[in-house]
């Protein structure tokens, strides 16, 4: 197929605009990365560094020697692992139950789930519920209220609807009960969708910020995002919510950039392992029949 001059001009302009957009998007990430590895002495002299003359791990050593920082990383890790596992179990179990036509009150449950998508109770009712459940200042206050997303339940239900009923009937003939069918047949067939939704849940739990501000009063239970926010708002090293055995602390800017890189790295490392499942899982519920 012959390409006209207009098409060539359009493709060139389009490619140029996309390249500029990529540069604009990538530049802040590169700047954070460069400053975090800049030698503290060099940064104090230049203040704006794009290509460090001397690379240094001083900021990372300072942050990783901080008990408060490591504790917040552990809190976020707990949220991302335990919270994601609990959310996947609840979402998959609820979606599978709703996909079975023999479930009594199925339409009523679907209506209630749709209502949670259309109407949000708001901050104060959520806070009152968490307080009445006795979860204020508990790490579980960030997990239990966010166990399942109504939208994810509906999408996963659509996936379960596409699984042939004959598979379950064959398993029942072989003497398998409903729980055994769910564990041995349904979940293994659902790995792409579980990987996709697991990634969404993990990113959500790792980025927990506002709920932590509302429900957690003890700084030792803060996730990494809350501690990072306090660091970014600090004007000097003495205001940073970190403690270290080092006598000389790097500039607060390099510490902040190092903290941003450390807080971003775990989620970036998860993507390659889920990539093979993510493309299939992202299409869950989009095609039926």
TrEMBL record:
Keywords on record: Cell membrane, Membrane, Transmembrane, Transmembrane helix, Transport
GO terms for biological process, alphabetical: transmembrane transport
Subcellular locations according to the entry: Cell membrane
Regions that span the bilayer: 12-33, 77-96, 108-127, 139-160, 181-206, 255-274
GO cellular component: plasma membrane
CDD domains documented for this protein: TM_PBP2
Broad class of the protein's primary localization: membrane
PROSITE patterns referenced in this protein's UniProt entry, alphabetically: ABC_TM1
Domain of life the protein comes from: Bacteria
A Pfam family hit: BPD_transp_1
InterPro entries in the cross-refs: MetI-like, MetI-like_sf
Annotated membrane topology: Multi-pass membrane protein
Gene3D superfamilies for the chain: MetI-like (1.10.3720.10)
Domain ABC transmembrane type-1 residue range list: 73-274
SUPFAM superfamilies, per database record: MetI-like
Family stated for the protein in its record: Belongs to the binding-protein-dependent transport system permease family.
Protein name: Carbohydrate ABC transporter permease
